[in-house]
Structure formats: C-alpha cells, structure tokens
Amino acid sequence: QKEVEQDPGPLSVPEGAIVSLNCTYSNSAFQYFMWYRQYSRKGPELLMYTYSSGNKEDGRFTAQVDKSSKYISLFIRDSQPSDSATYLCAFRSNFGNEKLTFGTGTRLTIIP
Amino acid sequence: EAGVAQSPRYKIIEKRQSVAFWCNPISGHATLYWYQQILGQGPKLLIQFQNNGVVDDSQLPKDRFSAERLKGVDSTLKIQPAKLEDSAVYLCASSLAGVGIQKENNEQFFGPGTRLTVL
C-alpha cells in the first residue's frame, strides 16, 4: 500500500463549480496536513495547512482532515479560471525531521 | 522578501554527462531541501540541510548525486554521471526554523525549479 494516494485527474469543471480534491494516507504518524498549489513551470506554494483533525476555511478554500479514516479533502467554492493548477496534498509527522511526503498531484482545469 | 532562487531554469544534457544546480534560499532560513519531481509525480525529498549539516539524505542516490551547503547559505546539487531516469524538475525549498523548532509554522517555500532533460 502506498503511503499517500491521490487521484491524478485530470479534472475539468466549469467556472463557478465546487471542486473536491482528496487524498488518503496510511502513515498514522502524520499530524500535519497540507495542500500545495503548483502552477505550470512554477514551484509548489502552500495553500492550506491543518494540524491534526478538523476543518479550516480560508476564503473560497476549505480543508478537511478525518484522521479516523486517514482521509483529507480540499474544497474550492466558486471556482475561477485562476484556480487552474496542480494540487498536491502533503503530510508531515510530529517527530523527526521536517520531511514532507507528497501525493502525486491532481491537475485541475477550470473552464470559463 | 525575495523568494528562493534557483539556476539554471532549464538544462539539457546527454546521459553520462555531469550537471550542477544552484539554490539560494530565503535569507535567514536555516533549513534547505532539495526535491526531485518526476513528471506526473509529487516532489520527493533528496536531501535536507540544517545550516551546513545534513539532516536527511536517505533518498539521495549517493553513487551519482552529491550536494553541499557550504557556509550554511546557498547550495549546489550535482549529478555525475546522469542517467535517462534523472530527467525531472529539481526543486529547492527553504524553511525558517531548524528541525524540532516551531514545527507548526515551519512552512517550506519552494523555488521555481530546474527542469533537467537527459537525452
């Protein structure tokens, strides 16, 4: 079983739609849950960050963590063409170094 | 605040040649990371430095890859000799705190990457 599983897409939705992106993981030591956005030919940038279980909202973005199911989600409301990018989930444990374990990324296109 | 700088942005070499990448992290950041991102995959950590010491190089193919961070600031990653499977984007990232300090807020900031093609 892979440590992190993420649907690679691609995913295309019309502008204004709600987008749901998901990852599952198997490592119980993961305590920090992140979503990175990566535009073409750019490095990843941190979009959302959650510590342990729970929800976090930032504008049009909501991150959810369900540790019991080892499942995390990112929701994008009122999606915009500028949201077109690859979204990477990332995980970090609470001990050891600061190493991030990434999913494969989901390529998202918002159609105007 | 200037971001993480990397050069070159693109490099094309033939297999068995050598190549070097350079990274200048955000000023004051103690920790520097090199990641390899193969097309269609997420970044994979190759090596992590805290100041000028190596924290984790467990996934660095040491028979062909080497990295250094002299003086604890900028860093170089070298591949010698390159193989076809080394074609990837090499990302450098930095974070403010050292390992074990302020874990919650230790965001990693990424540079634009160097896209390597090995023919």
Topology (SSEs and partners):
The complex is a heterodimer of chains A (112) and B (119).
Chain A: E1 4-6, E2 11-14, E3 19-25, E4 30-38, E5 45-51, E6 54-58, E7 61-66, E8 71-76, E9 85-93, E10 101-102, E11 106-111
Parallel strand pairs in A: 2-11
Antiparallel strand pairs in A: 1-3, 3-8, 4-5, 4-9, 6-7, 7-8, 9-10, 9-11
Chain B: E1 5-7, E2 10-13, E3 19-24, E4 31-37, E5 44-50, E6 53-56, E7 65-68, E8 75-79, E9 88-95, E10 109-110, E11 114-118
Parallel strand pairs in B: 2-11
Antiparallel strand pairs in B: 1-3, 3-8, 4-5, 4-9, 5-6, 7-8, 9-10, 9-11
Q: What distance lies between the first and last C-alpha atoms of chain A, to the nearest angstrom?
A: 38 Å
Rg of chain B, nearest Å? 14 Å
Number of helices of chain B: 0
- Low-pLDDT residue intervals, each spanning 5 or more residues of chain B: none
Structural class of chain A: mainly beta
As an assembly, this protein is heterodimer
Strand content of chain B: over 45%
Architecture overview:
The complex is a heterodimer of chains A (112) and B (119). With 112 residues, chain A is mostly beta strands. Chain A is 0% helix and 57% strand. Chain A contains no helices and 11 strands. In chain A, the strands form 2 sheets. In chain A, strands 2, 4, 5, 9, 10 and 11 form a 6-stranded mixed β-sheet that branches. A 5-stranded antiparallel β-sheet of chain A has the order 1-3-8-7-6, with no helix packed on it. With 119 residues, chain B is mostly beta strands. Chain B is built from no helices and 11 strands. In chain B, strands 2, 4, 5, 6, 9, 10 and 11 form a 7-stranded mixed β-sheet that branches. A 4-stranded antiparallel β-sheet of chain B has the order 1-3-8-7, with no helix packed on it. In chain B, strand 4 and strand 5 form a beta hairpin. The termini of chain B are far apart. Classes of the chains: A mainly beta (112), B mainly beta (119).
